[in-house]
Amino acid sequence: MIGLVIDTNVFVSSLRSADGTSRTVIRRCLQGLYKPCMSLALFAEYRDVMGREHLFAESPLNTAEREELFHAFIAVCKLTEIYYLWRPNLRDEADNHVVELAVAAGVNVIVTYNRADFAGAALHFPELRILTPADLLKES
Predict the structure, then answer these.
(1) How does strand 78-79 pair with strand 109-111?
(2) Which end of the chain is more exposed for a tag (fewer CB within 10 A), N or C?
(3) Which candidate, 45, 133, 32, places its Cα nearest to that of 93?
(4) What per-residue confidence (pLDDT) applies to 136?
(5) CA-CA distance, 102 to 127, in Å (whole number)?
(6) Residues in Cβ contact with 42 at an 8 Å cutoff, skipping those fewer than 6 apart
(7) What is the CATH number of the domain that holds 107?
(8) Which residues of 41-58 are buried (b: 16+ CB within 10 A; e: fewer)?
(9) How large is the C-alpha radius of gyration of the chain?
(10) What is the pLDDT of residue 89?
Protein backbone atom coordinates (compact mmCIF):
# COMPACT_ATOMS: atom_id res chain seq x y z
CA MET A 1 0.00 0.00 0.00
CA ILE A 2 1.35 3.41 -0.98
CA GLY A 3 1.31 6.05 1.75
CA LEU A 4 0.79 9.58 0.50
CA VAL A 5 -0.50 13.06 1.17
CA ILE A 6 -3.27 14.37 -1.05
CA ASP A 7 -3.21 18.12 -1.52
CA THR A 8 -6.51 19.94 -1.17
CA ASN A 9 -6.72 20.76 -4.89
CA VAL A 10 -6.83 17.05 -5.76
CA PHE A 11 -9.62 16.29 -3.29
CA VAL A 12 -11.64 19.29 -4.43
CA SER A 13 -11.17 18.28 -8.06
CA SER A 14 -12.56 14.84 -7.23
CA LEU A 15 -15.71 16.51 -5.91
CA ARG A 16 -16.11 18.74 -8.94
CA SER A 17 -16.00 16.09 -11.67
CA ALA A 18 -17.83 12.86 -12.36
CA ASP A 19 -14.65 11.07 -13.41
CA GLY A 20 -10.99 11.80 -14.00
CA THR A 21 -7.66 11.14 -12.37
CA SER A 22 -8.39 12.89 -9.08
CA ARG A 23 -11.59 10.89 -8.63
CA THR A 24 -9.65 7.68 -9.39
CA VAL A 25 -7.01 8.54 -6.77
CA ILE A 26 -9.67 9.13 -4.11
CA ARG A 27 -11.48 5.93 -5.15
CA ARG A 28 -8.23 3.97 -4.74
CA CYS A 29 -7.81 5.46 -1.26
CA LEU A 30 -11.31 4.29 -0.35
CA GLN A 31 -10.51 0.83 -1.76
CA GLY A 32 -7.41 0.59 0.45
CA LEU A 33 -4.88 0.71 -2.39
CA TYR A 34 -3.38 3.98 -1.13
CA LYS A 35 -3.07 5.12 2.48
CA PRO A 36 -3.61 8.89 2.67
CA CYS A 37 -2.25 10.80 5.66
CA MET A 38 -4.07 13.67 7.29
CA SER A 39 -3.09 16.36 9.77
CA LEU A 40 -5.32 18.76 11.64
CA ALA A 41 -4.04 21.62 9.44
CA LEU A 42 -4.86 19.77 6.22
CA PHE A 43 -8.25 18.71 7.61
CA ALA A 44 -9.04 22.36 8.39
CA GLU A 45 -7.99 23.39 4.87
CA TYR A 46 -10.21 20.73 3.29
CA ARG A 47 -13.17 21.89 5.42
CA ASP A 48 -12.55 25.53 4.57
CA VAL A 49 -12.45 24.92 0.82
CA MET A 50 -15.46 22.59 0.93
CA GLY A 51 -17.44 25.44 2.47
CA ARG A 52 -16.96 27.57 -0.64
CA GLU A 53 -20.19 26.65 -2.39
CA HIS A 54 -19.34 28.60 -5.56
CA LEU A 55 -16.57 26.06 -6.28
CA PHE A 56 -19.14 23.29 -6.54
CA ALA A 57 -21.77 24.92 -8.73
CA GLU A 58 -21.05 22.39 -11.51
CA SER A 59 -20.39 19.43 -9.20
CA PRO A 60 -22.24 16.20 -9.99
CA LEU A 61 -22.57 15.74 -6.20
CA ASN A 62 -24.90 17.68 -3.97
CA THR A 63 -23.76 19.03 -0.58
CA ALA A 64 -24.82 15.93 1.35
CA GLU A 65 -23.04 13.62 -1.10
CA ARG A 66 -19.86 15.71 -0.91
CA GLU A 67 -19.99 15.54 2.89
CA GLU A 68 -20.52 11.78 2.78
CA LEU A 69 -17.52 11.33 0.48
CA PHE A 70 -15.42 13.59 2.70
CA HIS A 71 -16.30 11.56 5.81
CA ALA A 72 -15.57 8.29 4.01
CA PHE A 73 -12.21 9.68 2.88
CA ILE A 74 -11.30 10.93 6.36
CA ALA A 75 -12.17 7.48 7.75
CA VAL A 76 -9.42 5.86 5.66
CA CYS A 77 -6.80 8.52 6.42
CA LYS A 78 -4.00 8.05 8.91
CA LEU A 79 -4.13 10.97 11.34
CA THR A 80 -0.60 12.23 11.82
CA GLU A 81 0.41 14.71 14.47
CA ILE A 82 3.22 17.04 13.54
CA TYR A 83 5.52 17.68 16.47
CA TYR A 84 8.31 19.43 14.63
CA LEU A 85 7.82 22.11 11.96
CA TRP A 86 10.26 21.60 9.12
CA ARG A 87 9.38 24.84 7.29
CA PRO A 88 10.64 24.13 3.78
CA ASN A 89 9.89 27.81 3.02
CA LEU A 90 7.83 27.31 -0.10
CA ARG A 91 6.64 30.27 -2.14
CA ASP A 92 3.13 29.71 -0.86
CA GLU A 93 3.35 29.53 2.93
CA ALA A 94 0.09 27.57 3.00
CA ASP A 95 1.83 24.62 1.27
CA ASN A 96 4.50 24.18 3.96
CA HIS A 97 2.17 22.11 6.15
CA VAL A 98 1.67 19.60 3.32
CA VAL A 99 5.41 18.89 3.20
CA GLU A 100 5.57 18.78 7.00
CA LEU A 101 2.79 16.20 7.02
CA ALA A 102 4.58 14.01 4.48
CA VAL A 103 7.80 14.13 6.52
CA ALA A 104 6.04 13.48 9.84
CA ALA A 105 4.03 10.59 8.37
CA GLY A 106 7.11 9.06 6.75
CA VAL A 107 5.60 8.99 3.27
CA ASN A 108 7.43 9.96 0.10
CA VAL A 109 4.59 11.09 -2.19
CA ILE A 110 2.57 14.29 -2.29
CA VAL A 111 -0.21 14.26 -4.88
CA THR A 112 -1.05 17.72 -6.21
CA TYR A 113 -1.95 19.60 -9.36
CA ASN A 114 0.38 22.42 -8.30
CA ARG A 115 3.80 20.81 -8.64
CA ALA A 116 5.43 24.20 -9.25
CA ASP A 117 4.25 25.36 -5.81
CA PHE A 118 6.53 22.77 -4.23
CA ALA A 119 9.63 23.65 -6.28
CA GLY A 120 12.34 25.88 -4.93
CA ALA A 121 12.06 24.88 -1.29
CA ALA A 122 14.85 26.06 0.98
CA LEU A 123 14.81 22.70 2.75
CA HIS A 124 14.99 19.64 0.50
CA PHE A 125 13.81 16.11 1.16
CA PRO A 126 15.41 13.97 -1.59
CA GLU A 127 13.03 11.00 -1.20
CA LEU A 128 9.91 13.18 -1.37
CA ARG A 129 8.24 13.08 -4.77
CA ILE A 130 5.65 15.58 -5.95
CA LEU A 131 3.29 13.84 -8.38
CA THR A 132 0.16 14.82 -10.23
CA PRO A 133 -2.74 12.38 -9.97
CA ALA A 134 -1.97 11.18 -13.51
CA ASP A 135 1.69 10.56 -12.61
CA LEU A 136 0.65 8.56 -9.55
CA LEU A 137 -1.77 6.43 -11.55
CA LYS A 138 0.90 5.69 -14.17
CA GLU A 139 3.25 4.44 -11.47
CA SER A 140 0.80 2.23 -9.60
Answers:
(1) unpaired
(2) N
(3) 45
(4) 94
(5) 11
(6) 5, 8, 97, 98, 101
(7) 3.40.50.1010
(8) ebeebbeeebeeeeebee
(9) 14
(10) 57
Range of the domain at 23: 2-139
Q: List the helix and strand counts (H, then E) for the chain.
A: 6, 5
User: Do 49 and 55 touch, CB atoms closer than 8 A?
Assistant: yes
pLDDT, position 32:
94
Neighbouring C-beta atoms of residue 94, cutoff 10 Å: 11
Q: Other CB atoms closer than 10 Å to residue 116's CB: what's the count?
A: 11
Residue pair 110/102 in contact by the 8 Å Cβ criterion: yes
- Average pLDDT of each block of 10 consecutive residues along the chain (140 residues)? 92 87 95 95 93 89 91 95 66 73 91 76 68 90
Total of domains in the chain:
1
